[in-house]
Amino acid sequence: MEQAKTTACELVDARMPEVSNWTRTIWDFGETAWREYKSCAFYVDLLRREGFTVEEGSGGMPTAFCATWDNGDGPTIGGYAEYDGIPGNCQAAEPVKKPRDGLGPHAGGHTDPHSALGMGSLAGFLATKAAMERFNIPGRLKFFGEPAEKVRGSKPIHAAAGYYDDLDAALSFHPFYMAPLCNTVRWDTHCGVGYGVIYEFTCDSPETWMAGGTDSPIPASHAAARAPGATDAMVMMYQSAKALREHVMAPGQSWSMNETIISHGQATADNIPAQIAQIQYFIRISEIEEAEHVIRGLDHFAENAARMNHCAWKRHWVAKSRPGLANHALSAATYANLETVGAPSWGDEAKAFGRAIQAELGLSPMDDPFLPMISELTPPEQAETALRQMLPPTQRHFTSDDYTEFCWHAPTVRLYIGRPALAAPEGFSYPAWAMNALGGHSASIDPMVETAAKVIAMTALDLLGDTGVLEAAQAEFKDRTGGGIGGENWIAPLCDYEPPLQFRWPEYVTTARGEDWVIPRN
Q1: How far is Cα 294 from Cα 288, in angstroms, rounded to an integer?
Q2: For residue 216, what pLDDT band results from cuts at 50, 70 and 90?
Q3: Does the pTM of the predicted model rise above 0.90?
Protein backbone atom coordinates (compact mmCIF):
# COMPACT_ATOMS: atom_id res chain seq x y z
CA MET A 1 0.00 0.00 0.00
CA GLU A 2 2.88 2.41 0.66
CA GLN A 3 4.04 1.84 -2.90
CA ALA A 4 0.52 2.54 -4.16
CA LYS A 5 0.42 5.77 -2.15
CA THR A 6 3.77 6.87 -3.57
CA THR A 7 2.50 6.12 -7.06
CA ALA A 8 -0.67 8.13 -6.45
CA CYS A 9 1.37 11.17 -5.40
CA GLU A 10 3.54 10.84 -8.49
CA LEU A 11 0.40 10.70 -10.61
CA VAL A 12 -0.88 13.91 -9.02
CA ASP A 13 2.42 15.59 -9.90
CA ALA A 14 2.24 14.33 -13.46
CA ARG A 15 -1.31 15.58 -14.00
CA MET A 16 -1.03 18.93 -12.24
CA PRO A 17 -0.80 20.92 -15.51
CA GLU A 18 -4.15 19.43 -16.53
CA VAL A 19 -5.65 19.86 -13.08
CA SER A 20 -4.49 23.49 -13.01
CA ASN A 21 -6.29 24.19 -16.28
CA TRP A 22 -9.44 22.45 -15.03
CA THR A 23 -9.37 24.50 -11.83
CA ARG A 24 -9.08 27.75 -13.74
CA THR A 25 -11.90 26.71 -16.10
CA ILE A 26 -14.36 26.27 -13.23
CA TRP A 27 -13.13 29.49 -11.62
CA ASP A 28 -13.75 31.39 -14.87
CA PHE A 29 -17.30 30.03 -15.12
CA GLY A 30 -18.10 31.74 -11.81
CA GLU A 31 -21.55 30.13 -11.61
CA THR A 32 -23.70 30.36 -8.50
CA ALA A 33 -26.09 28.19 -6.48
CA TRP A 34 -28.50 25.96 -8.42
CA ARG A 35 -27.39 27.46 -11.74
CA GLU A 36 -23.98 25.83 -12.26
CA TYR A 37 -24.82 24.45 -15.70
CA LYS A 38 -21.43 24.80 -17.40
CA SER A 39 -19.50 23.68 -14.34
CA CYS A 40 -21.57 20.54 -13.88
CA ALA A 41 -21.38 19.65 -17.57
CA PHE A 42 -17.60 20.07 -17.47
CA TYR A 43 -17.27 17.60 -14.59
CA VAL A 44 -19.67 15.10 -16.13
CA ASP A 45 -17.78 15.06 -19.43
CA LEU A 46 -14.41 14.84 -17.68
CA LEU A 47 -15.43 11.98 -15.39
CA ARG A 48 -16.86 9.98 -18.29
CA ARG A 49 -13.63 10.41 -20.22
CA GLU A 50 -11.79 9.15 -17.12
CA GLY A 51 -13.85 5.95 -17.09
CA PHE A 52 -16.54 6.76 -14.52
CA THR A 53 -20.21 5.94 -14.98
CA VAL A 54 -22.09 9.18 -14.35
CA GLU A 55 -25.70 9.77 -13.42
CA GLU A 56 -26.64 13.31 -14.36
CA GLY A 57 -29.25 15.24 -12.42
CA SER A 58 -28.95 13.03 -9.36
CA GLY A 59 -31.54 13.61 -6.65
CA GLY A 60 -33.68 15.59 -9.07
CA MET A 61 -31.11 18.42 -9.21
CA PRO A 62 -30.12 19.45 -12.76
CA THR A 63 -26.62 20.59 -11.72
CA ALA A 64 -25.81 17.57 -9.55
CA PHE A 65 -24.25 14.25 -10.52
CA CYS A 66 -23.20 10.91 -9.07
CA ALA A 67 -20.14 9.23 -10.66
CA THR A 68 -18.97 5.71 -9.85
CA TRP A 69 -16.01 3.56 -10.79
CA ASP A 70 -15.72 -0.09 -9.76
CA ASN A 71 -12.61 -2.27 -9.52
CA GLY A 72 -14.15 -5.33 -7.91
CA ASP A 73 -15.49 -6.28 -4.52
CA GLY A 74 -14.16 -3.93 -1.87
CA PRO A 75 -14.99 -0.79 0.15
CA THR A 76 -16.88 2.13 -1.36
CA ILE A 77 -15.14 5.45 -0.75
CA GLY A 78 -17.05 8.69 -1.26
CA GLY A 79 -15.92 12.19 -2.12
CA TYR A 80 -17.28 15.20 -3.90
CA ALA A 81 -16.80 18.40 -5.83
CA GLU A 82 -18.51 21.69 -5.18
CA TYR A 83 -18.51 24.37 -7.86
CA ASP A 84 -20.86 27.17 -6.83
CA GLY A 85 -19.60 30.69 -6.35
CA ILE A 86 -21.15 33.75 -4.76
CA PRO A 87 -23.06 36.62 -6.42
CA GLY A 88 -21.31 39.97 -6.24
CA ASN A 89 -17.77 38.57 -6.23
CA CYS A 90 -16.82 38.85 -9.88
CA GLN A 91 -13.08 39.42 -9.82
CA ALA A 92 -10.47 38.89 -12.52
CA ALA A 93 -7.39 36.81 -11.76
CA GLU A 94 -5.33 39.98 -11.74
CA PRO A 95 -3.67 42.00 -8.94
CA VAL A 96 -6.11 44.89 -9.38
CA LYS A 97 -9.77 45.25 -8.52
CA LYS A 98 -11.73 44.58 -11.71
CA PRO A 99 -14.46 42.19 -12.85
CA ARG A 100 -13.85 39.39 -15.30
CA ASP A 101 -14.00 40.44 -18.94
CA GLY A 102 -17.46 41.24 -20.22
CA LEU A 103 -19.11 41.31 -16.79
CA GLY A 104 -19.93 43.79 -14.06
CA PRO A 105 -18.81 43.49 -10.44
CA HIS A 106 -22.16 42.05 -9.31
CA ALA A 107 -21.76 38.80 -11.26
CA GLY A 108 -20.82 35.55 -9.59
CA GLY A 109 -17.32 34.60 -8.54
CA HIS A 110 -15.41 32.11 -6.42
CA THR A 111 -14.43 33.15 -2.93
CA ASP A 112 -13.55 29.97 -0.98
CA PRO A 113 -12.81 28.95 -3.85
CA HIS A 114 -15.01 25.95 -4.63
CA SER A 115 -13.33 25.76 -8.03
CA ALA A 116 -10.17 24.54 -6.29
CA LEU A 117 -12.07 22.53 -3.68
CA GLY A 118 -13.67 20.42 -6.38
CA MET A 119 -10.54 19.88 -8.43
CA GLY A 120 -8.39 19.06 -5.41
CA SER A 121 -10.87 16.33 -4.52
CA LEU A 122 -11.24 15.09 -8.10
CA ALA A 123 -7.46 14.94 -8.66
CA GLY A 124 -7.17 12.86 -5.50
CA PHE A 125 -9.81 10.42 -6.70
CA LEU A 126 -8.28 10.14 -10.17
CA ALA A 127 -4.91 9.36 -8.60
CA THR A 128 -6.59 6.77 -6.36
CA LYS A 129 -8.23 5.17 -9.38
CA ALA A 130 -4.92 4.97 -11.26
CA ALA A 131 -3.18 3.36 -8.27
CA MET A 132 -6.03 0.88 -7.85
CA GLU A 133 -5.66 -0.15 -11.47
CA ARG A 134 -1.88 -0.43 -11.34
CA PHE A 135 -1.80 -2.48 -8.12
CA ASN A 136 -5.10 -4.32 -8.63
CA ILE A 137 -6.67 -2.92 -5.46
CA PRO A 138 -10.35 -3.84 -5.27
CA GLY A 139 -12.97 -1.32 -4.31
CA ARG A 140 -15.35 1.31 -5.57
CA LEU A 141 -15.07 5.09 -5.88
CA LYS A 142 -18.18 7.24 -5.67
CA PHE A 143 -17.71 10.90 -6.55
CA PHE A 144 -20.54 13.41 -6.27
CA GLY A 145 -21.23 16.75 -7.88
CA GLU A 146 -22.71 18.85 -5.08
CA PRO A 147 -24.27 22.14 -6.24
CA ALA A 148 -25.47 25.06 -4.12
CA GLU A 149 -23.27 24.48 -1.06
CA LYS A 150 -23.52 28.18 -0.26
CA VAL A 151 -27.17 27.56 0.61
CA ARG A 152 -26.47 24.00 1.88
CA GLY A 153 -28.45 22.76 -1.07
CA SER A 154 -27.61 19.36 -2.47
CA LYS A 155 -26.15 17.16 0.25
CA PRO A 156 -29.29 16.97 2.42
CA ILE A 157 -31.21 16.02 -0.73
CA HIS A 158 -28.68 13.40 -1.83
CA ALA A 159 -28.62 11.98 1.70
CA ALA A 160 -32.40 11.70 1.97
CA ALA A 161 -32.57 10.07 -1.48
CA GLY A 162 -30.19 7.29 -0.35
CA TYR A 163 -27.11 8.22 -2.35
CA TYR A 164 -24.79 7.93 0.66
CA ASP A 165 -26.23 4.70 2.05
CA ASP A 166 -23.65 2.42 0.41
CA LEU A 167 -20.56 4.39 1.46
CA ASP A 168 -17.97 2.79 3.72
CA ALA A 169 -16.14 6.08 4.33
CA ALA A 170 -16.18 9.65 3.00
CA LEU A 171 -13.48 12.28 2.44
CA SER A 172 -14.30 15.98 2.69
CA PHE A 173 -11.83 18.73 1.81
CA HIS A 174 -12.15 22.50 2.09
CA PRO A 175 -9.67 25.34 1.55
CA PHE A 176 -8.53 27.09 4.72
CA TYR A 177 -10.88 29.94 5.62
CA MET A 178 -10.32 30.64 9.31
CA ALA A 179 -7.71 30.09 11.98
CA PRO A 180 -6.91 27.67 13.50
CA LEU A 181 -8.30 25.34 10.80
CA CYS A 182 -5.33 25.45 8.45
CA ASN A 183 -3.38 22.38 7.26
CA THR A 184 -5.25 20.20 9.72
CA VAL A 185 -8.40 18.14 10.21
CA ARG A 186 -11.45 18.74 12.36
CA TRP A 187 -11.27 16.80 15.61
CA ASP A 188 -14.22 17.09 18.02
CA THR A 189 -15.93 20.36 17.12
CA HIS A 190 -17.47 19.88 13.70
CA CYS A 191 -19.76 22.17 11.77
CA GLY A 192 -23.28 22.67 13.08
CA VAL A 193 -26.79 22.75 11.70
CA GLY A 194 -27.65 24.76 8.60
CA TYR A 195 -31.28 25.69 7.96
CA GLY A 196 -32.27 27.66 4.86
CA VAL A 197 -35.81 28.93 4.38
CA ILE A 198 -37.65 31.31 2.04
CA TYR A 199 -40.68 33.29 3.18
CA GLU A 200 -43.01 34.24 0.37
CA PHE A 201 -45.61 36.99 0.61
CA THR A 202 -48.36 37.40 -1.97
CA CYS A 203 -51.01 40.11 -2.29
CA ASP A 204 -53.66 38.40 -4.43
CA SER A 205 -56.70 40.52 -3.58
CA PRO A 206 -55.65 44.18 -3.34
CA GLU A 207 -59.18 45.30 -4.17
CA THR A 208 -60.43 44.04 -0.79
CA TRP A 209 -58.11 46.28 1.22
CA MET A 210 -59.87 48.33 3.91
CA ALA A 211 -59.76 51.56 1.86
CA GLY A 212 -61.18 50.04 -1.30
CA GLY A 213 -64.30 51.55 -2.85
CA THR A 214 -66.84 50.77 -5.54
CA ASP A 215 -66.44 53.92 -7.64
CA SER A 216 -63.45 52.81 -9.73
CA PRO A 217 -63.40 50.49 -12.73
CA ILE A 218 -59.91 49.25 -11.79
CA PRO A 219 -58.85 47.42 -8.61
CA ALA A 220 -56.19 49.97 -7.63
CA SER A 221 -57.99 53.29 -7.88
CA HIS A 222 -55.80 56.34 -8.29
CA ALA A 223 -58.13 58.15 -5.91
CA ALA A 224 -58.05 55.58 -3.08
CA ALA A 225 -55.44 54.28 -0.70
CA ARG A 226 -53.88 51.14 -2.10
CA ALA A 227 -53.19 47.90 -0.26
CA PRO A 228 -49.69 47.76 1.25
CA GLY A 229 -48.79 44.58 -0.63
CA ALA A 230 -45.97 42.09 -0.71
CA THR A 231 -43.00 44.47 -0.67
CA ASP A 232 -44.30 46.08 2.52
CA ALA A 233 -44.75 42.67 4.12
CA MET A 234 -41.25 41.62 3.17
CA VAL A 235 -39.75 44.86 4.51
CA MET A 236 -41.64 44.43 7.78
CA MET A 237 -40.41 40.84 8.00
CA TYR A 238 -36.85 42.01 7.43
CA GLN A 239 -37.08 44.67 10.12
CA SER A 240 -38.82 42.43 12.64
CA ALA A 241 -36.23 39.68 12.36
CA LYS A 242 -33.43 42.22 12.79
CA ALA A 243 -35.03 43.98 15.74
CA LEU A 244 -36.33 40.93 17.58
CA ARG A 245 -33.53 38.45 16.94
CA GLU A 246 -32.33 38.53 20.56
CA HIS A 247 -35.88 37.69 21.68
CA VAL A 248 -35.87 34.48 19.62
CA MET A 249 -32.56 32.94 20.67
CA ALA A 250 -30.99 33.99 23.96
CA PRO A 251 -27.34 35.08 23.93
CA GLY A 252 -24.72 32.68 25.16
CA GLN A 253 -23.52 30.86 22.06
CA SER A 254 -22.08 31.61 18.65
CA TRP A 255 -24.78 31.45 15.97
CA SER A 256 -25.79 33.49 12.96
CA MET A 257 -28.83 34.34 10.88
CA ASN A 258 -28.39 36.04 7.52
CA GLU A 259 -30.98 37.15 5.02
CA THR A 260 -31.20 38.03 1.36
CA ILE A 261 -34.07 39.25 -0.80
CA ILE A 262 -34.81 36.74 -3.56
CA SER A 263 -37.51 38.68 -5.41
CA HIS A 264 -39.78 41.59 -4.75
CA GLY A 265 -42.56 43.59 -6.32
CA GLN A 266 -42.25 44.87 -9.83
CA ALA A 267 -39.86 47.03 -11.78
CA THR A 268 -42.36 49.68 -12.88
CA ALA A 269 -43.05 51.23 -9.43
CA ASP A 270 -46.65 51.76 -10.47
CA ASN A 271 -49.44 52.36 -7.98
CA ILE A 272 -50.47 48.70 -8.20
CA PRO A 273 -49.48 46.89 -4.99
CA ALA A 274 -46.60 44.49 -5.29
CA GLN A 275 -48.02 41.01 -5.80
CA ILE A 276 -45.09 38.89 -4.58
CA ALA A 277 -41.93 39.19 -2.50
CA GLN A 278 -39.56 36.55 -1.18
CA ILE A 279 -36.87 36.77 1.49
CA GLN A 280 -34.43 33.99 2.33
CA TYR A 281 -32.96 33.33 5.77
CA PHE A 282 -30.02 31.12 6.59
CA ILE A 283 -29.43 29.95 10.14
CA ARG A 284 -26.11 28.52 11.33
CA ILE A 285 -26.43 27.08 14.81
CA SER A 286 -25.19 24.19 16.93
CA GLU A 287 -28.24 21.95 17.37
CA ILE A 288 -31.34 20.93 15.41
CA GLU A 289 -33.67 21.86 18.28
CA GLU A 290 -32.23 25.38 18.31
CA ALA A 291 -32.71 25.76 14.55
CA GLU A 292 -36.32 24.63 14.85
CA HIS A 293 -36.85 27.20 17.60
CA VAL A 294 -35.52 30.01 15.38
CA ILE A 295 -37.85 28.90 12.58
CA ARG A 296 -40.81 29.16 14.95
CA GLY A 297 -39.80 32.74 15.65
CA LEU A 298 -39.50 33.55 11.94
CA ASP A 299 -42.90 31.98 11.28
CA HIS A 300 -44.37 34.29 13.90
CA PHE A 301 -42.82 37.35 12.23
CA ALA A 302 -44.04 36.24 8.79
CA GLU A 303 -47.59 35.63 9.93
CA ASN A 304 -47.91 39.03 11.49
CA ALA A 305 -46.17 40.87 8.64
CA ALA A 306 -48.60 39.24 6.22
CA ARG A 307 -51.62 40.26 8.30
CA MET A 308 -50.44 43.86 8.57
CA ASN A 309 -49.97 44.18 4.82
CA HIS A 310 -52.97 42.35 3.37
CA CYS A 311 -50.96 39.34 2.20
CA ALA A 312 -50.82 35.60 2.42
CA TRP A 313 -47.54 33.89 3.31
CA LYS A 314 -45.79 30.58 2.77
CA ARG A 315 -42.58 29.03 4.03
CA HIS A 316 -40.39 27.12 1.53
CA TRP A 317 -37.42 24.99 2.58
CA VAL A 318 -34.03 25.43 0.95
CA ALA A 319 -31.90 23.38 3.33
CA LYS A 320 -31.97 21.27 6.47
CA SER A 321 -28.47 20.00 7.12
CA ARG A 322 -27.48 18.01 10.20
CA PRO A 323 -24.57 18.75 12.55
CA GLY A 324 -21.26 16.98 12.09
CA LEU A 325 -20.00 13.82 13.76
CA ALA A 326 -16.36 13.33 14.72
CA ASN A 327 -14.27 10.32 13.72
CA HIS A 328 -10.84 10.38 15.33
CA ALA A 329 -9.60 7.21 13.63
CA LEU A 330 -10.11 8.54 10.13
CA SER A 331 -9.02 12.05 11.07
CA ALA A 332 -5.76 10.77 12.59
CA ALA A 333 -5.00 8.68 9.50
CA THR A 334 -5.69 11.66 7.23
CA TYR A 335 -3.47 13.97 9.25
CA ALA A 336 -0.68 11.39 9.21
CA ASN A 337 -0.83 11.49 5.42
CA LEU A 338 -0.76 15.29 5.51
CA GLU A 339 2.40 15.08 7.63
CA THR A 340 3.94 12.85 4.97
CA VAL A 341 2.96 15.16 2.11
CA GLY A 342 3.78 18.35 4.02
CA ALA A 343 2.05 21.71 3.96
CA PRO A 344 1.83 23.52 0.62
CA SER A 345 4.53 25.99 -0.32
CA TRP A 346 4.46 28.90 -2.73
CA GLY A 347 6.98 29.73 -5.42
CA ASP A 348 8.33 32.94 -6.90
CA GLU A 349 5.46 33.50 -9.36
CA ALA A 350 2.84 33.29 -6.61
CA LYS A 351 4.86 35.58 -4.34
CA ALA A 352 5.26 38.12 -7.12
CA PHE A 353 1.49 38.12 -7.63
CA GLY A 354 0.97 38.67 -3.90
CA ARG A 355 3.44 41.54 -3.87
CA ALA A 356 1.67 43.11 -6.84
CA ILE A 357 -1.59 43.10 -4.86
CA GLN A 358 0.18 44.72 -1.91
CA ALA A 359 1.62 47.42 -4.14
CA GLU A 360 -1.79 48.04 -5.73
CA LEU A 361 -3.21 48.62 -2.25
CA GLY A 362 -0.47 51.10 -1.35
CA LEU A 363 1.43 48.73 0.93
CA SER A 364 5.15 48.07 0.94
CA PRO A 365 5.55 44.72 -0.82
CA MET A 366 6.97 41.99 1.42
CA ASP A 367 9.67 39.53 0.41
CA ASP A 368 7.26 36.76 1.41
CA PRO A 369 3.77 38.26 1.18
CA PHE A 370 1.91 35.21 2.52
CA LEU A 371 0.73 34.34 6.00
CA PRO A 372 3.16 31.89 7.64
CA MET A 373 0.33 29.58 8.79
CA ILE A 374 -0.62 28.54 5.25
CA SER A 375 2.71 26.68 5.00
CA GLU A 376 2.65 25.22 8.50
CA LEU A 377 0.95 22.10 9.84
CA THR A 378 -1.47 22.40 12.76
CA PRO A 379 -1.94 19.19 14.79
CA PRO A 380 -5.67 18.42 15.15
CA GLU A 381 -5.67 18.47 18.95
CA GLN A 382 -3.91 21.85 18.91
CA ALA A 383 -6.48 23.23 16.46
CA GLU A 384 -9.28 21.86 18.61
CA THR A 385 -7.91 23.53 21.75
CA ALA A 386 -7.67 26.89 19.95
CA LEU A 387 -11.15 26.51 18.49
CA ARG A 388 -12.69 25.72 21.87
CA GLN A 389 -11.26 28.93 23.31
CA MET A 390 -13.57 30.82 20.95
CA LEU A 391 -16.73 29.04 22.12
CA PRO A 392 -18.87 28.59 25.22
CA PRO A 393 -18.10 25.27 26.95
CA THR A 394 -21.57 23.85 26.27
CA GLN A 395 -21.59 24.57 22.51
CA ARG A 396 -20.92 21.36 20.59
CA HIS A 397 -20.70 22.62 16.99
CA PHE A 398 -19.45 25.75 15.23
CA THR A 399 -20.02 27.31 11.80
CA SER A 400 -21.89 25.46 9.07
CA ASP A 401 -21.14 23.35 6.02
CA ASP A 402 -23.21 20.49 4.68
CA TYR A 403 -20.34 17.96 4.45
CA THR A 404 -21.93 17.01 7.76
CA GLU A 405 -24.56 15.04 5.84
CA PHE A 406 -21.95 12.40 4.96
CA CYS A 407 -21.06 12.02 8.66
CA TRP A 408 -24.29 10.15 9.47
CA HIS A 409 -23.90 7.55 6.73
CA ALA A 410 -20.22 6.64 6.99
CA PRO A 411 -17.05 7.66 8.85
CA THR A 412 -16.10 11.09 7.48
CA VAL A 413 -13.02 13.29 7.75
CA ARG A 414 -12.93 17.03 7.27
CA LEU A 415 -9.59 18.16 5.81
CA TYR A 416 -8.41 21.78 5.58
CA ILE A 417 -5.44 22.81 3.43
CA GLY A 418 -3.83 26.25 3.42
CA ARG A 419 -4.78 28.53 0.55
CA PRO A 420 -2.96 31.72 -0.49
CA ALA A 421 -3.64 34.43 2.09
CA LEU A 422 -1.63 37.61 2.40
CA ALA A 423 0.11 38.81 5.55
CA ALA A 424 -1.24 42.19 6.65
CA PRO A 425 0.52 45.07 8.37
CA GLU A 426 -0.89 45.83 11.80
CA GLY A 427 -4.31 47.46 11.55
CA PHE A 428 -4.82 46.66 7.86
CA SER A 429 -7.44 44.35 6.35
CA TYR A 430 -7.34 43.16 2.76
CA PRO A 431 -10.44 43.70 0.60
CA ALA A 432 -12.32 40.65 -0.62
CA TRP A 433 -11.19 41.11 -4.22
CA ALA A 434 -7.58 40.39 -3.25
CA MET A 435 -8.40 36.97 -1.82
CA ASN A 436 -10.65 36.18 -4.76
CA ALA A 437 -7.95 37.09 -7.28
CA LEU A 438 -5.47 34.76 -5.56
CA GLY A 439 -7.98 31.93 -5.93
CA GLY A 440 -8.04 32.35 -9.70
CA HIS A 441 -4.30 32.83 -10.25
CA SER A 442 -2.95 29.38 -11.05
CA ALA A 443 0.50 29.73 -9.50
CA SER A 444 -1.15 30.92 -6.29
CA ILE A 445 -3.91 28.32 -5.89
CA ASP A 446 -2.28 25.22 -7.39
CA PRO A 447 -0.09 24.37 -4.36
CA MET A 448 -3.21 23.93 -2.25
CA VAL A 449 -4.92 21.80 -4.91
CA GLU A 450 -1.87 19.57 -5.27
CA THR A 451 -1.47 19.04 -1.53
CA ALA A 452 -5.14 18.25 -1.04
CA ALA A 453 -5.15 15.78 -3.94
CA LYS A 454 -2.21 13.83 -2.54
CA VAL A 455 -3.64 13.63 0.98
CA ILE A 456 -7.04 12.55 -0.34
CA ALA A 457 -5.50 9.84 -2.54
CA MET A 458 -3.30 8.50 0.24
CA THR A 459 -6.19 8.39 2.69
CA ALA A 460 -8.49 6.69 0.19
CA LEU A 461 -5.83 4.02 -0.37
CA ASP A 462 -5.48 3.53 3.39
CA LEU A 463 -9.22 2.88 3.52
CA LEU A 464 -9.10 0.50 0.56
CA GLY A 465 -6.13 -1.49 1.80
CA ASP A 466 -5.58 -3.92 4.66
CA THR A 467 -4.32 -1.19 6.99
CA GLY A 468 -6.90 -1.31 9.78
CA VAL A 469 -7.93 2.30 9.17
CA LEU A 470 -11.37 1.47 7.78
CA GLU A 471 -12.13 -1.05 10.51
CA ALA A 472 -11.18 1.40 13.26
CA ALA A 473 -13.14 4.24 11.63
CA GLN A 474 -16.25 2.10 11.23
CA ALA A 475 -16.05 0.81 14.81
CA GLU A 476 -15.88 4.41 16.04
CA PHE A 477 -18.79 5.39 13.79
CA LYS A 478 -20.87 2.58 15.27
CA ASP A 479 -19.94 3.62 18.79
CA ARG A 480 -20.71 7.32 18.30
CA THR A 481 -24.07 6.65 16.64
CA GLY A 482 -25.11 4.08 19.23
CA GLY A 483 -25.17 1.19 16.80
CA GLY A 484 -24.51 2.63 13.36
CA ILE A 485 -27.22 3.74 10.94
CA GLY A 486 -30.49 3.64 12.84
CA GLY A 487 -28.70 3.55 16.19
CA GLU A 488 -29.98 5.32 19.28
CA ASN A 489 -27.72 8.37 18.71
CA TRP A 490 -28.03 8.40 14.93
CA ILE A 491 -29.72 11.37 13.23
CA ALA A 492 -31.80 10.53 10.17
CA PRO A 493 -31.87 12.85 7.13
CA LEU A 494 -33.95 15.97 7.74
CA CYS A 495 -34.78 16.76 4.12
CA ASP A 496 -38.54 16.47 3.51
CA TYR A 497 -38.80 18.88 0.57
CA GLU A 498 -38.15 18.92 -3.15
CA PRO A 499 -35.06 20.64 -4.61
CA PRO A 500 -35.83 24.40 -4.46
CA LEU A 501 -35.11 25.02 -8.12
CA GLN A 502 -38.05 27.29 -8.95
CA PHE A 503 -36.89 30.42 -7.17
CA ARG A 504 -35.22 33.41 -8.74
CA TRP A 505 -31.67 32.37 -7.92
CA PRO A 506 -29.15 34.81 -9.41
CA GLU A 507 -27.69 33.53 -12.67
CA TYR A 508 -26.14 34.37 -16.00
CA VAL A 509 -28.69 35.22 -18.66
CA THR A 510 -28.68 35.45 -22.45
CA THR A 511 -30.73 38.23 -24.02
CA ALA A 512 -30.75 40.17 -27.26
CA ARG A 513 -27.92 42.17 -25.68
CA GLY A 514 -25.76 39.06 -25.29
CA GLU A 515 -24.70 37.08 -22.25
CA ASP A 516 -24.83 38.96 -18.97
CA TRP A 517 -25.52 38.60 -15.28
CA VAL A 518 -29.04 39.02 -13.91
CA ILE A 519 -27.95 42.52 -12.82
CA PRO A 520 -26.77 44.10 -16.11
CA ARG A 521 -23.29 45.54 -16.25
CA ASN A 522 -23.03 49.27 -16.74
Answers
A1: 10
A2: low
A3: yes
